[in-house]
Amino acid sequence: MGAGKSRTARLARKGGAEVVDVDAELEAELGSPIADFFERAGEEEFRRREAERTVAVLAAAKPGTIVALGGGAVLQPAVAEALRPHTAVWLDVDADRAWERVAGKDGRPLARDRETFARLHAERRPVYRELADARMLWAESASGAYPVFVGSRILGRPLWPLPGRRFVVTDSNAGLRYAEALAPSAAVIEVDPGEQAKSLAVAERVMRQLTRAGMSRHDHLAALGGGVVGDLGGFCAAVFQRGVAVAQYPTTLVAQVDSAYGGKTGVDLPEAKNYVGAYHLPAAVVADTATLTTLPPEELAAGFAEVIKTALLAGDPLWSEVRDLAGIDPAGLDEVIFACVRHKADVVARDERDSGHRQSLNLGHTVGHAIEVAGAYRRYRHGEAVGLGLLAALRLSGADELRDEVEELLARRGLPTALDPGIDVESVLAAVEHDKKRGPDGVGFVVLEEPGAARTGVVIEPDRVRLAVQELAGR
Ligand SMILES: NC(=O)c1ccc[n+]([C@@H]2O[C@H](COP(=O)([O-])OP(=O)(O)OC[C@H]3O[C@@H](n4cnc5c(N)ncnc54)[C@H](O)[C@@H]3O)[C@@H](O)[C@H]2O)c1
Question: Which residues line ligand 1 (CB under 6 A)?
Answer without folding.
Answer: 171, 173-174, 177, 193-195, 198, 225-229, 231, 251-252, 254-255, 258-259, 262, 264, 274, 291, 294-295, 299, 302, 381-383
